[in-house]
Amino acid sequence: MKNLKYIFVSLLTIFCMTSCSNEGALTPSAPEEPDFPQGTNSYDKVFEQYYKDYGTMVLYRYTDADFRWNITSYIPYYSEIADENYVSAAWTFLNDNCLSIWPNSFLKKCLPNRILLASSIWSLKEGWDYDDAGNYVKTYTKVYHTSVYGLNHIAFGLTNSTIANLTTADKKTAIGEVAYSLIGYATSRSKIDVPTAFKTLHDDYTKYNGEDEGDWGYNAAGCLEYIYACDVYQDFAMYVKYLMTMSKDEFTAAFLNDSFDCGGTYDSNYNKTYTHPIKQKYQIVIDYFNSLGIDLQAIGAKTSALQ
Fold first, then answer.
1. Domain for residue 51, yes or no?
2. Is the pLDDT of residue 27 over 60?
3. CA-to-CA separations, 44 to 10, 36, 57, 79, 179, in angstroms, rounded
């Protein structure tokens, strides 16, 4: 009996180890191919032609799996599908203001398989507060986003009634966020490359985020915004986001000064030498897109002048 019991326990252990190993290797199933076109409206004809021109399906009906599928990591975003009363208006704004500002050849190379039109996109910000019973509990607050990107899509979150009444600030935000999504998607999927010099700066200044490279803080690490565990694709896309929405003077005033661009090193007497990683990255991004025939600062000047 002892031998049988030993054999049973051993087999059970092997089974559990094998199951756990297999479970760790599992990846989410890919979303199913949608019916396309999704309707017979006039804008469906436009989307059919867009697919012929760019190989990108514009979807206003999609599943949660379509939006959240990602083989490599958890996607911390949620969405509601488009309000179909505003599909035409949302697409007109998105195409005219956020996509057609790029050269056709660039779009054909960089656009994802799908563009998802959402009525809203949000993430959840964790916090702590007291509930009605006086217990200190974790809370979640919705933080809305105009655009995000996933493994095979970019999503646009203004397909709702607000699209007809966007302020100038709203329009600039949308242009910047869609640019961020497009470039973040394209670089992370190797459709375009992040320049080696930019990668080197990203790695050098974010390795310790200030302890050995200068002051603490995302800006001292050469990043324009705080993003937890910011990867090089997000870092690069963030520069494009701001360069496409600000004039040269606005970008310089906001980011290219010692107060913000404060990365540097200290000598043994704690005297600081500024190395300006943001200024270095800025020039790399400008030069890279110039080599592609794209003047980001000209686009930024035009966006900055929007009324």
1. yes
2. no
3. 60, 9, 10, 22, 24
